[in-house]
Amino acid sequence: MSQIQAQFPKGFLWGGATAANQIEGAFDEDGKGLSAADFVEYIPKSERTKDNAMEITSEQIRKTLSGESTARHPKREGIDFYHRYKEDIALLAEMGFKAFRLSIHWSRIFPNGYDETPNEAGLQFYDNVFDELAKYNIEPVVTLSHYETPYGLTEKYNGWVGRETIDHFVRYAETVFTRYKEKVNYWMTFNEINMITISPFTGGGVLSDKEENPMKAKYQGLHHQFVASALATKKLHEINPNGKMGCMLARMSTYPNTPNPEDVLKAQQDNQANLFFTDVHARGEYPKYMERFLAENDIQIAKEPGDDAILKQYPVDYVSFSYYMSLLSSAAPEGERTEGNLMNTLKNPYLEASEWGWQIDPIGLRVALNELYDRYQLPLFLVENGLGAYDKVEADGSIHDDYRIDYLKKHIEQMKEAIGDGVDLMGYLAWGPIDLVSMSTSEMSKRYGFVYVDKDDEGNGTLERSRKDSFFWYKKVIGSNGEEL
């Protein structure tokens, strides 16, 4: 019996992924306006709960803007990529990166979101970044909206709840597509678009306490994001025929807790609730199973004539997603729970967990890749995967992060198996190749990088960069196209 020797394809896009709000800093420089991320407060670990939803209230915003709040907002500082991008990109190039995912901070280009003309200083900054990447033949992979809704749109329309935000987003997309059509071919519209239903302010600049029916507001805002994504895809194909547009999902692979058919049904429903987002993006229509969910939750989505036709006519070119862990579903969810990406879950006794309680499931990645490819038959792109951990700097400055190497190695092995299964996988972008501010908690101590950044949770440090053991390991992985792990 012959055996398939799985290999990563030639031209596989090895690299790493970041977000503007977690790395750039310079939140008020060169004409940039405030965004949703600029209001996210640092929460010390002792004060966090397992159900921390990263939500911001109108009162928190009022206190921040008036100066009454004493909270720190670490995403305003980031790791100063804004001034250090040349140094940072040189480190990525030293590892041999083929691709680097970053986001454009929408409020650098249109400070309020609804401005008539773009901010030239913001456009020039990303020109400089893309030129620096081109110097090393690193392909930029650019997210248009990565938890960075301009605060002006929150003030004026309560973010994505207002249909007007669609037109402002499409103008922003058209502006950057036109400006960077010779420099960027891979785009994504909304990072982890399912976030708007979990943390509406993070995912869509929506203040839930301003809404009579917060649940309905979430799904109305989501519908507007779907339409905006389709219209942006249309614009990209018109402006740059070589351009490829992807959607981006936080993939929540869910297993039944037991063979009990009730648990199996619950897991199926939870998986549908997660795949709903990519169903609309990739298939161009709301799936039938959502009709029952919307009806049972008394949600009527206001659609304009033509919305459904727009979704159908302009689906995405590829499906990208983040994968960190798997979840368990139970019809009677009793038992010990643990934290995870965006939500907590029942503990899986067959899996280890990170220091933050995220369950480590490399085989689950192979399962997710096969499920997504079977479902959509579109190229897949794993644009986030990594291990958040505490790193110790030794007396000689070295950082021995074997735990990170082990995590990544096991996930890369399973990607290779999925390619052997027939999955069309475009690339692998490890999350946070340079230590950055945590999305959910605004910590620095939860580190993902191959490169260490000297900064602590309280904002102290030199910001000096140094190479971890994983830096040299990942360089070998890329250099061997995934053969040397």
From TrEMBL:
One of its GO terms (molecular function) is 6-phospho-beta-glucosidase activity. This is 6-phospho-beta-glucosidase. It holds the Pfam family Glyco_hydro_1. SUPFAM superfamilies: (Trans)glycosidases (SSF51445). One of its GO terms (cellular component) is cytosol. It comes from the Bacteria. Its EC number is 3.2.1.86. InterPro entries: GH (IPR017853), GH_1_N_CS (IPR033132), Glyco_hydro_1 (IPR001360), Glyco_hydro_1_AS (IPR018120). Belongs to the glycosyl hydrolase 1 family. It is an enzyme of class 3 (hydrolase). It comes from Oceanobacillus polygoni. The keyword Protein biosynthesis does not apply. Keywords: Glycosidase, Hydrolase.
